[in-house]
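Good morning,

Attaching, inline, the backbone tokens for the sequence recovery test we're adding to the shared suite. The designed sequence is right after.
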């Protein structure tokens, strides 16, 4: 081998190694973006929260999303205590669910209550990047102008969270698509009257189905607006969300793999959070284990 061939081959080897290491890093980063909404194992978290978190971590989950902030505590722990538990298990909590409602905004004073301010402080202590409200009280969805005004409070909430390095966010169900106010869907009112720099959207691709919402349509209609996604599939049901209930990924009608890819490419989605609320006779803890294996098989 002459000198020119040696230099050329060496350069190609180094470049190949660099690309390979980048590929491994990118794959690892993608996997770490997958989390689980702990509401999926709500009974387990109620009865044995620490043991359940250990099982979740052992499965390979890196991120969790809480659904239990009651009386200033996460699953019975103060914020600093809960943060330590997560850290010890190698878990992060980029987002969490707490319904933002009437007890959190003082209409007369036009300011947030101390209860909500404490929640925001505790969320920051736990390392959250997003404070998500997973419900819109019926009191705020009676007429168009009322809901539009309340979206200004959403924006103010975003400003409050921004002060702690976070964003406020909203998570949909099905009524946002089936209910119209002045001929405008509730979801469109929310999207068109919130500031994307302050208010993030968590797109639940399953909940919307029974109300007529379709994830692919929304991702195309509002590109770049969905920083978080609840990854779930839906099958027919007589009990939930307009005749549909969640099930193991890939067995239902959503086309989950394609929607997840669309979220990554078009929606601006960085946080993919598995949630399964119905189990068809299986143990919830086994369902989220199976769901994780499936999404990992897709390269996440």
């Amino acid at each position: 081998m002459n000198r020119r061939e040696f230099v050329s081959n060496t350069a190609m080897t180094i470049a190949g190694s660099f690309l390979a290491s980048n590929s491994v890093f990118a794959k690892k980063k993608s996997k770490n973006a997958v989390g689980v909404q702990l509401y999926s194992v709500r009974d387990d978290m109620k009865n044995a929260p620490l043991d359940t978190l250990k099982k979740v971590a052992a499965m390979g989950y890196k991120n969790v999303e809480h659904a239990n902030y009651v009386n200033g505590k996460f699953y019975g722990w103060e914020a600093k205590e809960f943060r330590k538990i997560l850290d010890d298990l190698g878990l992060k909590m980029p987002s969490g669910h707490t319904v933002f409602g009437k007890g959190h905004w003082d209409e007369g004073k036009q300011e947030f209550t101390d209860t909500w301010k404490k929640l925001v402080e505790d969320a920051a202590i736990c390392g959250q990047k997003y404070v998500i409200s997973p419900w819109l009280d019926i009191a705020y969805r009676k007429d168009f102008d009322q809901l539009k005004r309340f979206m200004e409070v959403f924006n103010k909430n975003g400003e409050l969270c921004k002060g702690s390095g976070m964003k406020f966010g909203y998570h949909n169900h099905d009524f946002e698509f089936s209910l119209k106010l002045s001929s405008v869907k509730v979801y469109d009112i929310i999207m068109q009257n919130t500031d994307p720099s302050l208010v993030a959207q968590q797109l639940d691709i399953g909940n919307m189905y029974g109300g007529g919402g379709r994830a692919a349509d929304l991702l195309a209609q509002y590109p770049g607006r969905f920083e978080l996604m609840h990854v779930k599939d839906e099958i027919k049901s007589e009990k939930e969300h307009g005749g549909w209930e969640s099930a193991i990924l890939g067995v239902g009608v959503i086309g989950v793999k394609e929607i997840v890819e669309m979220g990554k490419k078009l929606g601006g989605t960085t946080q993919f959070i598995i949630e399964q609320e119905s189990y068809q006779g299986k143990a919830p803890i086994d369902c989220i284990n199976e769901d994780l294996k499936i999404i990992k098989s897709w390269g996440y």
